[in-house]
Specification:
The protein has helices at residues 7-18, 24-70, 75-83. By secondary structure, the chain is mainly alpha-helical. Helix 1 packs across helix 2 and helix 2 (24-70) packs antiparallel against helix 3 (75-83).
């Protein structure tokens, strides 16, 4: 199995070409910090998206329960149904 090339290496090379006098270890460290920050931001964004989807799902279920009660269903039966009991 062949390993994929390190994506940070290409960006480090590009940064070195753009900034004269910059040492490779410093450029590499900078690029890796940017990658790590991007990964952390992406993870936080994904978690926020999951939480928002869960909140929306809960709101839809609550509205469904309210509609069932408004249509004359027993509130206790609706509550049990929505809880999954």
């Amino acid at each position: 199995m062949e390993l994929e090339p390190d994506p940070a290496a290409a960006y480090t090379d590009e940064l070195l070409a753009l900034v004269g006098g910059l040492q490779r270890p410093a450029a590499d460290a900078f690029v890796r910090r940017v990658f790590e920050g991007g990964a952390a931001h992406g993870a936080r964004t994904a978690l926020a998206n999951v939480a928002a989807a869960e909140n929306e799902k809960d709101a839809q279920i609550r509205r469904l329960g309210e509609r069932l009660v408004a249509l004359g269903e027993d509130p206790l039966a609706v509550a049990r149904l929505l809880r999954g009991a």
